Amino acid sequence: MAPFSTISEFKTLLANAPEADDDATAGARRRNAQLTKPPGALGRLEELAIWYAGWRGSDSPAIDAPQIVVFAGNHGVCAQGVSAFPPEVTVQMVANFEHGGAAINQLAKTFGATMHVHALELDRPTADFTQSPAMSEAEFIAALRTGWGAVNPAADLLVPGEMGIGNTTVAAAVGAALFGGIGADWVGRGTGVDDAGLANKARVVDAGLARHASREPLEVLRCLGGRELAAMAGAIAAARAHRIPVILDGFICTAAAAVLEKTRAGALDHCVAGHLSAEGAHGRMLDSLDKVPLLSLGLCLGEGSGGAAAIGVLKAAVACHSGMATFAEAGVSDG
Ligand SMILES: O=C(O)c1ccc[n+]([C@@H]2O[C@H](COP(=O)([O-])O)[C@@H](O)[C@H]2O)c1
Ligand SMILES: Cc1cc2nc[nH]c2cc1C
Predict the structure, then answer these.
(1) For the domain that residue 99 is a member of, what is the CATH number?
(2) Does ligand 1 lie within 6 Å of residue 173's CB atom?
(3) Mind listing the GO molecular function terms for this protein (predicted)?
(4) Rounded to the nearest 5°, which phi and psi values hold at 159?
(5) What is the domain count for the chain?
(6) Host domain of residue 314
(7) Tens of pLDDT along 19-30?
(8) pLDDT tens track for 192-203
């Protein structure tokens, strides 16, 4: 399914990834200037619609087939006591997703998106990154390939989500390795650890940073990341290959995405940040990626929930852009 079976082939795909269609972008910009509103009156919705139009290659696109994919993984680093919840919650929540009982199921329904969950070897957690690399190269490639293969080429919007007890520690380690700083700069409360838990998370991240010297981004993801992060990275790369725009979710999703941007500048040009997570370091990570979140609702759930909530904003932008009358069509005098 996935057109790569080595890291170097994956890097080649990133290097050769398609760009937005300049003609469609220019056409959408011209159309936007003719719509029945004062110039700029739809604010950021206007830029969003033009961005979306460029990636879809149409000056008046529609969003008819949004896809949400939730990847679930378990983490050896949970042995270090980094979460307020036990690791078995990951598989329990996968069952909840499959039965339609989670927040993301309701958001998918609300915004007319399909939702699938991919559980990634939950009974075989990654290795504890304070002791050894989280994944072997084969495990890492398998997770990247699962993510790539999960994307429906016929989708017109992708929201990657995740579920994985312990993965805020993992994302903090990836963030620190990619962007610099120490554990304390990148850890947050996750599912609700107390002050001692927060200090422990910082210590665990520092131990991971000390053990794994490589700062090569894909090596950072293999050694300090997790299967669901690798799968999200694979899915975001696949979306780019299919010219499917992506709405990023919170801290963990953004950490996975950041690996791609650090591997190849511009790799996230087809992505918009759905929201600002309550996880403290998310804002800094988004700033480093030059991404301004669409929403800021204090969410720290994961599952793709913040990205899914932002589907409504993007749908609104595209509906206005493609559905509004022009001044000429409506017989309204322009300024
Ligand atoms: O997306 C976020 O920004 C986010 C922030 C805090 C927690 N989470 C979710 O909570 C879980 C990880 O929290 P923790 O405390 O176990 O590291 C994982 O399943 C994530 O989906 C997600
Ligand atoms: C209950 C629960 C639901 C979640 N969804 C995403 N991460 C989660 C973590 C917990 C603990």
Answers:
(1) 3.40.50.10210
(2) no
(3) nicotinate-nucleotide-dimethylbenzimidazole phosphoribosyltransferase activity
(4) -120, 110
(5) 1
(6) 7-20+64-320
(7) 999 999 999 999
(8) 999 999 999 999
